[in-house]
Model the fold of this input.
Amino acid sequence: MIRSPKPTKLQAIMTLMLTIGITNHVFIIPALLQIAKRDAWFSVLLAAIPFAIVVCLIGFASSRIGTEALPEWIRQRLGRFPALLFQCVMTVFFFATAWFSLFDTVMWMKVTFLPYTPVLATSLVLMLLCLGGALKGMKTIAITSGILLPLVVLLGFYVAIVNVEFKDYSLLFPLLEQGWDPVIRGVLYTCSGLFEYYFIFFLQPYLKAPLNKKQLFIFAFILFGLTLGPLTGAIAEFNPFEAAVQRYPAYEEWRIAGFGKYVSQTDFFSIYQWLSGSCIRISFALIVIADMWRVPAARWRPSLLITLAVILVPLSCYTFSDVTFQHLMIRYIFPIDAYFILGMTLILAAVSMFRPRKKGRST
Amino acid sequence: MRASLAILVLVFSLLLTGCWDMKETQNINFITALGVDYKEGRYIIYSQLLDFAEIAKQEGTVETGNGKVWIGQGEGRTIDEALNSLYPASQQRTFWTHVRAIVFSKALLDKHLTEAVNGLIQNRDLRYTPWVFGTYQNIPDIFSSISLLNESVLNSELLDPEEIFRQYSFIEPIRVINLMNGVKEPAVTALLPLISCTTKVWKGEGEPVSQVKLVGAYAIAQGANRGLVNSAMLQGARYIAFNRMIIFPLTLTLEDGTPVTLSIIHSKSDVGVRANDEYPKVRIQVRIKAYITEAGTASGVSAATIDELAEKKIEQDIRRSFDAAKAKQIDLYNLEEKLYRDEHARWKELMSRGKPLISLMELDEVQVEMNLVHSSSYKLLNR
Done:
């Protein structure tokens, strides 16, 4: 399934930047602004502490795990049952990841660019694209990321720069107007985005060698910056009270971007950014699920992927309204996500301390 | 494999023909300006519609006759209801994404600005980028005043105030996004340019032609209109409250009575509020760059004299504007914002007294540092 040559480390980081970046750059921002308002950016700064700890834990665990697939690695250390449990839990997790990403993307298209197009049409097309990527495997996704990401980054800088005329960073103050409570709650939401850093565990099996300390650190730093950028932008441009009621603050930043007298609207570029992110993210989630369950049966992998895709399309169209979705995400999903990943990282780090039961090589 | 791929691509192209959201530009009414009024519990929307031929000034053909401007009117209990009430008689699809200016009537500004702005933005078609104005005149009058020589109406001050601001920075034009701070931030005052039309300046073929003109500003704070800022009050605000000041004339009177005109081309202010006393004391430092545009018959006057006179005049203007605004309880220089951001605890305490904060403030020290850059085409004595 994994054909050589394997993706390079740069491609791996680019894949993760798209996969995780869209959460930190887009999905998490409305929640964070709603919870912590003006202090949201301070929450992100404070979140650096738990994030740094988690990054160290992940770095430690990943140096022990190397490029081994996680279920196999757990089976060697803890036995069959924990490995199976892990597979089930992670399948649910990544399935939910794909579901929510697809839902948010399709809904965003409905609200902004295609109000008259049925969600089924957009969902179907996007899902087919992701399915194509997933069928081809992680290598393809990594190469695609290498092509997609540079322009995504370039456009990000574009929107940051042309919007300078609207930015007034004095709006970031005063701090702690409502006390510490919203700030601390904001830290939890920031973490739920940043902790997705642990996706690294699921990408490394596809690489020749695990990422080294320097690469891990640089990637963590990029992720942190990705969260801070559009968040401070939204506060400085719109003021926190306006930004807190916006459904898509990151996209609103695109809506004001233009240059000169004759080019007043350039928000269509955001479609490219958003779709790059969510497409890679959904494909990534599907691939992780598919490669976790290795069954020797013929055509097992494509059948599994197609089944998942067939389930995801109606789920993303007909399950709940966007209002319910927002409520669920902010009230339950994001906080649970943060605790879940933290727990999982702690377990993996703890297991890393032990030697494998069976005789095997451990790096 | 290849055949199935080809079929797949063909199937996708079927989707394209559907294009639920395709719109053809010739079938769309593009609204260029929007007016919002409020009367007896109902929002009234005025929309300015332009002919496509008017938007792009065509080469070769000379347009004759008046520029074509159509004005639609709708009303409703909410903004969206009012917008919708325009549709039945609009023949084609109406588009709001290209609205370039929004004019609010005084009646609306006094009571329902927050609701109106929220309604306009939530309605997803409008952006944060249109220019915003206030007016006490009839909005249709403002929309029907056209540009000079029947040029494209897009070249009017209403739809493109930036051009005139670059030649005459009377009041800084702002967009919806800037107005938002005055609507939602707790201690900010935004100056909303006041637009009106005048027939006194231009005549076309002997007949007076109505043209729009910015005549002052409304001070908008916490979503409410705090009152009119007239041109005398703007005189001081220009140096302190404006984010940008490109060029504005200043006429001084020399000791012998001859007038001298300068052009102020740069102003940077530093405002400090000392709040430990009973009454917060305000200290203002302004650095100004200017050049002399007309010294007229004032021969023998030196740059140093003009420099000194200008500093005195500007200090006077700043003090006068402050006093005039304070008398109307308008926080013209955004002093409250300064306290709110820098000394939050003190701000809260002062706010708890229940009085408008500006009425407690005292203007203590004003320092003006004038830098005369050049004297245009004529020479001038240094000392």
About this structure: The domain at 243-383 of chain B is CATH 3.30.300.210 (GMP Synthetase; Chain A, domain 3). The first strand of chain B starts at residue 28 and ends at 39. The first helix of chain B runs from residue 2 to 18. Chain B touches chain A at residues 12, 15, 18, 20-21, 97-98, 100, 124, 127-129, 160, 162, 177-178, 180-181, 184-185, 340-342, 344 (CB under 8 Å).
